[in-house]
Amino acid sequence: MKDYNISRGTHFYTIGLSYKKADAEIRGHFSLDEERKEKLLQQAKEEGIDGIIVTSTCNRTEIYGFAQHPFQLIKLLCEHTHGTVEEFEKVAYVYKNKEAISHMFRVGTGLDSQILGDFEIISQLKLAFVHSKEVGVANPFLERLVNSVIQASKKIKNETRISSGVTSVSFASVQYILNNVSNPAEKNILLFGTGKIGRNTCENLIKHTKNNKITLINRTKNKAEKVAGKFDLSVKDYADLPEEIRKTDILIVATGAQNPTITKELIYNKKDLLILDLSIPKNVSDDVEELDGVTLIHLDHLSKMTDETLERRKEQIPFAQAINKEIEAEFINWLETRKFAPTIKALKKKLKSMKEAELDFQRKKISGFNEAHADVVSDRIIQKIMNQFANHLKGDSNMTDESIDLIQKVFQLDEPVRK
User: In the record, what terms sit under GO molecular function (predicted)?
Assistant: First the structure.
């Protein structure tokens, strides 16, 4: 990518792992909370990386960034998570340049999601870019790329039906309750964790189960109170968690902790208890299933759920792919213009200099010389010449490098045009 004048890094990479080859436990090893993302971005900045985005969701952890070699990004990921390089090599993927660009389009539009048509991933990608921009590691290439993916996502949602039915883990959890719990409207439901997934789950619970006996608990109580206020729900202190678990029929865990927050010791139920763990890493210890009457469902199970609209959504894949291809081509076309932008800029400067020299000569030579008219005419001629060169360079991508070299040689452009 160095020829495109966009970064000090030689290539643009996507490195990461997802549900396709990494199970929930391994994904947990490489998950990044907000604090770790911040530290990773700061270290990247210190190491001279000028363009990088980090995403970490329940289904995947990925880094999009510029580097001389992908190991620079892999090293950053492993240093800020519990994962090792050896683990990464077994389950990970690395995409380079245009393949990395195509991958972001697939991910951002829900085509690579564990639940086809996932509409939550694009907002996570937006936030990741904003975070990088705040730290100072987001360049114009990344901004243009993310905006192009957002554009494709919107168009796919508006023009296809790929996002109908179950398209998120939060909705899948509610569908599981509706399909497997009798009289869900009458059950006591405890939601532990009111982050993004927790909030979405809460909205889906109210909308689809018509249950108003939902209690919220969050380590930071005021966050739970904000969600509860919107729906007129009950909020309890974090210290009340064991007591509230004893009262509940369904426990939904959506916390962002790096270690299990629900353990065997917290549960003393004398009735059946369904636990849905929507967290990565797992926030419910596996051994809770040893308790009588406890059923534990993790998000990997929920993500495999199908519904009656899935086959219809699969039929929409070619239409979504066509939209991606169209907008990705527009992005690549923009990228190609970056290749010759410094040359065009230097050429314009050279022509302006020639114009000024000629006007100065004619001003001295011609009596009553109309400088204003000459200035307008010469500027228009320069612009027409610039347009001719720009159109040539855009239309002949196979010969761009040769054309750039020729323009530099003919016009003696001695300014550096490539990084």
Answer: glutamyl-tRNA reductase activity; NADP binding
Beta-ladder partners of 190: 215, 251
One-character DSSP codes across 298-365: EHHHHHT---TTHHHHHTTHHHHHHHHHHHHHHHHHHHHHHHHHHHHHHHHHHHHHHHHHHHHHHHHH
The torsion angle over the Cα atoms of residues 279, 281, 282 and 287, rounded to 10 degrees, is -170
Q: Which two tokens stand for residue 43?
A: 């270290």
Task: Specify whether the CB–CB gap between 81 and 28 falls below 8 A.
Answer: no
Residue carrying the six token digits 């243009």: 144
* pTM of the predicted protein model: 0.76
Which residues, including other chains, have CB under 8 Å from residue 359's CB and lie 6 or more apart? 371, 374, 375, 378
Task: Measure the CA–CA gap between 415 and 199, rounded to whole angstroms.
Answer: 54
Joined tokens for residue 405: 């070299």
Residue 216 in tokens: 């919220």
Nearest by Cα to 238 from 248, 249, 224: 224
Active site residue ranges: 58
Reported as a single tens digit per residue, the pLDDT across 170-205 is 888 998 999 999 999 999 999 999 988 899 899 999
Structure confidence by residue, pLDDT tens digits, 85-115: 999 999 999 999 999 999 999 999 999 998 8
What's the burial of 136, exposed, middle or buried (CB within 10 Å: 0-12/13-18/19+)? exposed
Type of residue numbered 177: I
Among 301, 292, 302, which Cα is nearest to 264's? 292
Domains of the chain with CATH codes: 2-162 (3.30.460.30), 169-303 (3.40.50.720), 341-411 (no CATH)
CA distance 340 to 338: 6
Coil, helix or strand for 146?
helix
Q: CA 170, 174, 175, 181 torsion: positive or negative? A: positive
What's the rounded Cα separation, in Å, for the pair 69 and 9? 9
CB 116 within 8 A of CB 160: no
Please give the Cα distance from 104 to 312 (Å, whole number).
24
The β-bridge partners of 205 are none
